[in-house]
Amino acid sequence: MYDLIIIGAGTAGLSAAVYGVRAGKRVLLLEEQVYGGQILSAVEVENYPGIRRISGYEFAENLYRQATELGAEMRYEKAVKIREEGGEKTVITNRSGYACRAVILATGAKKRRLGLEREEELTGAGISYCATCDGAFYRGKDTAVTGGGNTALEDALFLSGYCRKVYLIHRRDQFRGEERLVRALKEKENVVTVMESRIIRLNGKAHLESVTVEHSRTEREEELLVAGLFIAVGQEPDNRAFSDAVRLDASGYVEAGEDCRTSRAGIFTAGDCRTKEVRQLATAAADGAVAALAACAYMEQSSWQ
Fold it and tell me: How many angstroms separate the CA atoms of 139 and 202, rounded?
């Protein structure tokens, strides 16, 4: 019997674990793949308060060690359902089931797909969702990045150090990312911006060979010869397994405010998987702290009743 089960071991989940065990609770972290979440793919983190510069891997490793050395338990299992009976909750995984008093959903979000034909087929064969993971494979080659936010801009900057040419394709006439990143891109001679355009076809046999873009103003199609395409068009949550336990919004995010309380008593949420305006490393850590302390308060209140 655990006091608190946290589903997801990204920044929000690990931060919640730190606060949970420090409050004297028995905490179990459930993670389907690898701890750390999306920050693992960041080459450098420069916007976390109090840390001037750190790699995403080192940040995640430090947080994981902090949580586990304090006493949080970790199991690599996929949570598929939350059952509740008589006030006791059971988290069902693909391997077992674990009883607890409170749950925190910290499932994060995954990279959004373009939804194009052959996208899945060519993933790993020219298509990637992580420039820092796969960029070095395209040294000296032409590549493309699609997207307009910070991730897309950072990916293009990163790839410009490896690739002969980087096309940055965005469907709008202005980028949504930070101005400092836009300025940095303008200084890169091998980065070509393709604005007001979208990818409509992926071309190649066993491996990606080119992409066809449509320019929205003229409806003209153009083929760009690239060996790699890096997709950075946002995120989407993966909360469908818990739709019968908590209320989700139309996009699949867990409905919760800044108090991280969901529609179900005893179930809390933290990080990118919940409804919120800002999804940053610092806000994920803050959510973890808020959710853990709220869960502890819930457990204390329940024990009085």
Answer: 21
Three-state SS at 274: strand
Task: Note the pLDDT of residue 304.
Answer: 54
In this predicted model, what pLDDT tens digit does every residue of 98-117 receive, in sequence order? 999 999 999 998 888 999 99
Q: Which among 165, 140, 134 is positioned nearest to 232, based on CA atoms?
A: 134
Q: Which amino acid is at 255?
A: E
Write down the pLDDT at residue 133. 79
Ramachandran quadrant class, 297 (left: phi over 0; alpha: psi -120 to 50; beta: rest): alpha
Select from 63, 61, 56, 58 the least CA-distant residue to 14: 63
Contact (Cβ atoms closer than 8 angstroms) between residue 56 and residue 42: yes
Q: Which residues carry out catalysis?
A: 130, 133-134
Structure tokens at 46: 């420069």
pTM over 0.85: no
Q: What is the pLDDT of residue 62?
A: 98
Residues of the chain short of pLDDT 70, as ranges, are 303-305
The region, left, alpha or beta by phi > 0 then psi within -120 to 50, assigned to residue 173 is alpha
Predicted local distance difference test score (pLDDT) of residue 154: 93
Query: Measuring CA to CA, which residue among 46, 67, 65, 66 is closest to residue 56?
Result: 46
Distance CA 298, CA 257 (A): 16
If DSSP codes are grouped into helix, strand and coil, which group holds residue 172? coil
Amino acid residing at 220: R
pLDDT for the residue 87: 75
Q: Which of 200, 203, 227 shows the shortest CA–CA distance to 213?
A: 200
Q: For position 45, what pLDDT does the model report? A: 86
Question: d(Cα 73, Cα 214) in Å, to the nearest integer?
Answer: 50
Closest CA to 266 of 233, 296, 239: 296
Tell me the CA distances in angstroms from 283 to 17, 44, 174, 273, 289, one per residue in order. Answer: 16, 18, 26, 12, 10
